[in-house]
Amino acid sequence: MTMDRRVRRTRQAVQRALVDLTLEKGYEAVTVTDLINRADVGRSTFYAHFTDKQDVLLSNIAEIDFLHRPPSTSGELFAFSLPMLEHAAEQQRLVKALLGRRGGGVLVARGEQMLATMIRDELTTRGAPASPSLDLVVICVAGAFMALLRQWVDGDFTATPTDLDTAFRTAVIPGVAALLGGQ
Amino acid sequence: MTMDRRVRRTRQAVQRALVDLTLEKGYEAVTVTDLINRADVGRSTFYAHFTDKQDVLLSNIAEIDFLHRPPSTSGELFAFSLPMLEHAAEQQRLVKALLGRRGGGVLVARGEQMLATMIRDELTTRGAPASPSLDLVVICVAGAFMALLRQWVDGDFTATPTDLDTAFRTAVIPGVAALLGGQ
DNA sequence: TTCGTTATTGAACAGCATGTTCAAGAAGGA
DNA sequence: TCCTTCTTGAACATGCTGTTCAATAACGAA
């Protein structure tokens, strides 16, 4: 499981280089050559570890660990929201580089999918019957949350996690609650 | 105002080439050389009209005209929804190429901004006091709608416009209504 | 410390995309 | 018709990609 120390050093250096360079130039503008230079790693070494620029991006997913939180099924609806936002606030650099406007769109898409799955599970657990139309509502909720997150990140984290959480709940909880109550 | 016929022909050929190629390979994978070949246009001609691949993309915005609908301020809340979706359903090819997963993310971002502005105006017109927290709710609503649209497009337009409209309203109208009613 | 294994290096390479230039020719429209 | 404007194709410098290879360096287990 624990890799060779050299491997660890190399991979980390490249991953950090991607974050740094993305913050500086935006993900699109970052080239493999940039990564190599910034990470101070041989070109052949890079391709021994990653296939792509995007491969480096995806390898960073594990580090955005607030996307993997266990869905706290008990308690209030969408309890994931506030803790997730608070966690994001603590990882501003990383989150901004990877999820921001200047970041690679891939992670946003993945995040939205993971969120949607999480939300769908929560709703069916609470008694909503699985159906195509439920899925559509789930997309709305996930889209709302991710849009909020993106906006926050691109606006350099003005507003507090609580502000965002409140807005999110204001917008979607009444609708979802009506859906659940009506069963 | 009306351009030289040659100019019209050239620009159209390139724009169409972008749509076609995006549907085939995805926007990212399309190169300027591809556009030139498909449009059957000289390289120097291309650069006489566009600066970029992205420039071609943006020049297509005007064609997605349902993003410019006048906000029908009267009648029900978010009346733009169903007509917009119906219009999108009629322009599947174009919409899928430009707004889909394989399309350039730029237009999605623009669409979300325009939507947010439209929604904000509608809410303030109806008496919601302008404030930062209102803006956050607006982001949620716009994000929900765009997420729905993206999902629809990438799923090849299964579901009807009415289905989507219903889901959208189910998810966000109760929350927004509470916000308006509470004033 | 030793020693076999594994990772890194740097340079070189072919391939391809970009964006610019220019003189010659074709098409437009008044 | 005739002047203007657009298009053409080719050539070019530049920069990025992804691969290869033999030499060297670092690792970690015994």
TrEMBL record, chains A, B:
<keyword id="KW-1133">Transmembrane helix</keyword>
<keyword id="KW-0472">Membrane</keyword>
<dbReference type="InterPro" id="IPR050624">
    <property type="entry name" value="HTH-type_Tx_Regulator"/>
</dbReference>
<feature type="DNA-binding region" description="H-T-H motif">
    <location>
        <begin position="31"/>
        <end position="50"/>
    </location>
</feature>
<keyword id="KW-0812">Transmembrane</keyword>
<feature type="transmembrane region" description="Helical">
    <location>
        <begin position="134"/>
        <end position="153"/>
    </location>
</feature>
<dbReference type="InterPro" id="IPR001647">
    <property type="entry name" value="HTH_TetR"/>
</dbReference>
<dbReference type="Pfam" id="PF00440">
    <property type="entry name" value="TetR_N"/>
</dbReference>
<keyword id="KW-0238">DNA-binding</keyword>
<feature type="domain" description="HTH tetR-type">
    <location>
        <begin position="8"/>
        <end position="68"/>
    </location>
</feature>
<dbReference type="GO" id="GO:0003677">
    <property type="term" value="F:DNA binding"/>
</dbReference>
<dbReference type="InterPro" id="IPR009057">
    <property type="entry name" value="Homeodomain-like_sf"/>
</dbReference>
<protein>
    <submittedName>
        <fullName>TetR family transcriptional regulator</fullName>
    </submittedName>
</protein>
